[in-house]
Amino acid sequence: METQGKEARAETGTQQGAQSYAQPGAHVGAQQVKERVAVIGAGLMGHGVAQVFAVAGHQVILQDVRPEGLDPAVESVRRNLAFLAARGVGDEAAVEATVARITTTADMEEAAAAADFVVECVFEDMGLKQEIFRVLDACAPREAVLATNTSVMSITQIASRAEHRERIVGTHFWNPPYLIPLVEVVRGADTSYATMERALSILTAAGKHAVRVEKDVPGFVANRLQHALWREAISIVERGIADAATVDECIRYGFGLRLPRLAPLETADMVGLDLTLSIHEYLLPHLEASPEPSPLLRERVAAGDLGFKSGRGFQEWTPEAIRASREGLLEYLVGVVKNLDIATAPTESAAPGNNHTKE
Ligand SMILES: NC(=O)c1ccc[n+]([C@@H]2O[C@H](COP(=O)([O-])OP(=O)(O)OC[C@H]3O[C@@H](n4cnc5c(N)ncnc54)[C@H](O)[C@@H]3O)[C@@H](O)[C@H]2O)c1
Fold first, then answer.
1. What is the pTM of this model?
2. Is residue 176 part of a domain?
3. Which residues contact 170 (CB under 8 A, 6 or more apart)?
4. Residue 125: CB within 6 Å of ligand 1?
């Protein structure tokens, strides 16, 4: 009976999702059935992913193999919500009720056993993720969806030790997950249509901008784009064309400003594909195309110049400059999301009882 109920719910979710995720920033909010969500790994991404689902009104169980990391993870959620509320995003009065929807455990089997939707956020290690999905598949209710937050690795390989691979899917959140709308929903070789739809539906209803990635390729869509740009940026420094600060300025004060409104393929259509073709005929032979990481990058790493971690990377970083970079990004993103119709912080409407609740 439970299984039939879930299948019926999944179907409903499919229809809602199909309507809503087509519209940028749109979400079904109050119509979404509240699920039991388990988040495996309570680190940087795990606590933020737990926050996203708690804000959307779901019951969340946050698990980590290190029990001492669990209370600080919940405290981080509380701090994030207070930070947002102080800037006019969400309702300060709803913070404690939201945090109360997150329970914790160090026992992964316990977390999985009570879940309708699981998001794995452990270290980026193929062997570890494969083992976790073998165990999750054995412990989670048969109809639960099992999602991995891997940044670049194969969903198909991560699922390879599980028996029911059709319910395993990629859900690639971006950091910080409660401020960046995008989640790439990635189909592995064995992922079913129903699993893709359920992932798209729950994420869209939680205010995320969930997109379909239909092929399980390294880096999916957004990290391929991001690292293509990084490769060229490093190459420009390596070739002595401009220094690192100048490269970043060219993006920050130039085409980076318009990217959120005018992304590359829309720009190509705007300027004309004939012009785009002639630019590519002239320019592409001169761009970096190496399949290897840059020798300059390897040199810096070998010298211990790791960036913020060591105080020097492509540029010098004082502790003040590091703090300013991190805080500046958060303040900037809050300003951006305030202008988008997305749920990043709790409001009264997310409270259980104002929505359909789990049967
Ligand atoms: N950091 C980012 O910007 C970012 C962005 C998108 C996706 N990701 C992906 O998200 C995942 C997590 O990254 P992160 O930055 O949060 O890492 P993190 O190191 O901050 O957290 C990983 C957590 O997993 C826990 N863990 C390790 N083994 C475990 C196990 N067997 N069971 C339960 N918990 C376990 C660790 O104790 C730790 O708390 C990775 O796959 C990463 O590639 C990271």
1. 0.88
2. yes
3. 147, 148, 149, 150, 155, 184, 185, 186, 187, 188, 213, 216, 220
4. no
